[in-house]
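Running co-folding for PXL.
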Amino acid sequence: MEDLIRIAAIHDISGVGKCSLTVALPVISASGVECACLPTALLSTHTGGFENFTFSDLSAEMLPIARHWKEEGIIFDGIYSGYLASAKQEEMLEEIIGLLANKDTKIIVDPVMADNGKYYSNLGHDMCLAFRRLCGRAHIITPNITEAALLTDLPYMEGPHDEEYLSSLVNGLSKLCCGVIAITGVRPDRDSIGVYAVDTKTGESCLSASRAEEGVFCGTGDLFASALAALILRGAGLKDAVEISTLLVSESIGRTVRRGTPRRNGVDFEGALPNYIRRVAELFGE
Ligand code: PXL
């Protein structure tokens, strides 16, 4: 019997405010890929827009979980990491990759640490140094504009982002990661937002953007990266994977704006999943 494609998703669990594992698990599952969850931290809420959130570092659990999976002979087609509890967890991630990856396993690193020109609460330069190392192990990285600027030591620009700025970010990132670089939160012009992706091996590039809504939407980077990781593992081409993943994000944002749900709670991706699943099925001729 053919085994399902399987991803180990290594992110925090934030109980309220849809992001990280509470987004990765449903989106990866809806993509027809099995999602094994390896939590890095447990929080009452995410750290953007909530006060006094609880935070528990799950470092002590991470290697034992990975070792158990290895003992059980569980095979991973992808290892996809996001928000880490500390820069120190990067070393753990290297060890987990050593344990769980085989020669065909794709490593996807979302260097979650900052947005809108600022580090997230309680994170700083040590996280940036850690992510520079981790990106060196990755086949795919998905920084937003702020993270790309921090990783490359280039200035952060709010936008619009011209080709020269995007090329300088990609050029800097290609020194850290020699695979697919997908930069999120790109503003090609004042009215649109999307993703610019480059495969540094083939030179293929694409830009997928849609109409920008006002304000900040938590968890949309996780939504994009989860879909992209799953679709590429299933064998989608870069352009199709980026397009379908950005459509999932823009439709989720559109529904959130129409319903007027609080921004910090995360976007209404649940309501956008039926269209997403239809597009995925069409792409793979199911
Ligand atoms: O969506 C990124 C993210 C993930 N995890 C936690 C966060 C954030 C963004 O604020 O706070 C805990």
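Result summary
Residues 6-283 form a domain with the UDP-N-acetylmuramoyl-L-alanine:D-glutamate ligase fold (CATH 3.40.1190.20).
The longest strand covers residues 34-45.
Job closed.
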